[in-house]
Design brief:
This protein has 26 helices and 21 strands. By secondary structure, the protein is of the alpha/beta class. The strands form four sheets. The chain has an eight-stranded mixed sheet, with helices on both faces. Strand 12, helix 12 and strand 13 form a beta-alpha-beta unit. Helix 1 runs parallel beside helix 2 and helix 11 packs across helix 25. The N terminus is likely disordered. It binds 3-hydroxybutanoyl-coenzyme A (3HC). 3-hydroxybutanoyl-coenzyme A binds next to strand 7, helix 3 and helix 11.
Length: 681
Amino acid sequence: MSEGMGDGTSESSIVPGRPIERLAFSATVFGEVDQGVLLVTIDNPPVNAAATSVRAGLLAAIGMTIAAPAILAIVIAGTGKSFVGGADIREFDAPPAPPLLPDVVAEIEACSKPVVAAINGVALGGGLELALACHARIAAPKAKLGLPEVKLGVVPGAGGTQRLPRLTGIVAAIDLIGSGRIVDAGAAQTFGIVDRLSAGDLVDEARELALALVGSPLRRTGGLSVPPEPVPAVEAAEAKVLARSRGQSALAAAVRLVRAAAETPLADALAEERRTFLALRASPEAAALRYVFFAERAAGKVDGLDDVAALPVSTVGIVGLGLMGAGIAVAALEAGFTVVGVESTAPAAEAGRIRIAGLIDRAVKSGRLSAADGAVRLARLTTTTELVGLADADIVIEAVFDDLEVKTQLFQSLQGVVRPNAVLATNTSYLDPDGIAAAVDRPEQVVGLHFFSPANVMRLAEVVRCAKTSPTVLATALSVARAMGKLPIVCGVTEGFIGNRVFSAYRRAGEFLVEDGASPYDVDAAIEAFGLAMGPFAVSDLAGLEIAWARRKRQAATRDPAERYVDFADRLCEAGRFGQKVGRGWYAYVDGKRQPDPEVDQVVAAARAAKGIVPRAVAAEEIVERLVAAMAEEGEKLLAAGIAARSSDIDLVMINGYGFPAHKGGPMFIAEQTRKAARPT
Ligand code: 3HC
């Protein structure tokens, strides 16, 4: 390999039309000249993030191109699965180091010779911004493109908010940048983001394209004008993004910057974009979202599974096609599995089939799925009343009534039917899956797979490692859950697993706050303002109060009398206030709308009086602090007991299963920040 630019590569070594040795522009950026085109490859595993050495290498490559008469054009490509996976997120905790990405991007756009992006794989964030500054973009059909910065609590910081709308229009740019969604190459071409898709060898085609551009005026994205669009359409796109913001600053900032593209000179708008990016990058929101990003990657690394392969799965059996089972079936069909659904009676099986078809139909009607794809999914579903229909299943997931007797009997019947190595997964929320496993001959085949309702929508799946679950079975359950688009979090056996145990502690803390003097409505309002979609009392009403009541009654005999116990939820249940489905719970429901109910205030007041508690005013800040602290304390207990492997797993459960705002990082993250702040420096 010859030495890099900075290390002495001389332009005189370049002879037109003849490939030369590989140049090293930096530790991660390499080049070779063929037919007068410098092919620049970025090789910075795992995702070719635009780290300092990548930025420096690209600048060196541009510099050499401008200086070398023998180089007519440049093609930039990535190695492996990525073009460039974005700025290097690991660098975000330190001040930005030169050369800065906006400067690299500006050099590319200003280059006097054609620069073509050969987008071989993911081009995200700063990676897409690099490509947007090139004079043409050609993408492999499998490439994926997007500006997902808002998911990290920032806005694009290297021209994305200004260059994207010049190609797509403001409405599409608000949608893409405001949602952070990633599109495939075909959609990117429809949006005008890429000029063409490669039909054969991407780099060869990019080289031809680059040579064809030599000598003609270059199309610089920053020099294009923003296509005019009707104001109502822009406002509608903006409103859609802001409705999802839940108090996050990055979304509103992204919309504001994109709108500025149509009104502000490029240089001023780019400067404002950079200022906003840097301010957001240093914000607590962005720190929390970065933590969540790395937490998700860490959750995939499960103790004891390093060299364990998952069993191949093509057929998923689902027993019980109620709301939960149907949702699981839809997710399994979406993942490409063949699904066999079993119900106890023919009408129930037919109702299950109709429920599943209805969910698929809803996706078609909303435009999320084509009618043809919907039909393909439905064709992979069969429903039956016979367990023997599960003979070919690689995994069976039961979603029947949450009763130990019912579930153990089912698993016992299954073992005579399914293949010996079929995985038996229980979707129980509260029962002891070890108890279920103990009832079968091969307990090592049993695992918990706890989905959240609606299972076709909710991203979380708790994967419960039972005492005897084999590593292969655990790996298979994880791989099935991932294929279904879920974020699987491994946990040990405890009543309620991670999520419901933390949720119960949070709900109890809510009741303590009410006993102290807050109203249930104050509690819900405070935590909703903090960012949860619904407070604990509204959630209880939605789920139904009788489930927790039944559990409290079960636990009554063994409850520690010294433990604080609030009994007004029992009083509400005794009065038949079981929640939203009966129109009365913590709230009254009038025409489907929840509203405070003075009767509840009276029940609470009577319960306080019976304990001699004089109610005091409780500020919203205290409410949030105590609720979050209660979650974190329960999380600590789960860690101590080895139920959760790491505290970030607990945060992921609360974010993805219970609506905890990701931009706050999760209760464990907040507790750690609070501890750090309290530590003497
Ligand atoms: N910076 C640093 N590390 C990154 C990274 C990034 N941008 N993207 C991924 N990684 C790391 C992951 O942490 C993981 O590391 P590990 O193996 O040590 O756990 C490894 O790369 C592989 O990541 P995944 O497991 O996620 O691999 P996948 O193949 O499933 O997905 C991906 C690859 C689609 C690129 C995905 O990692 C991803 O979405 N990354 C983030 C992309 C992103 O948000 N980019 C924007 C950054 S902000 C920005 O660019 C600002 C700019 O506007 C100035």
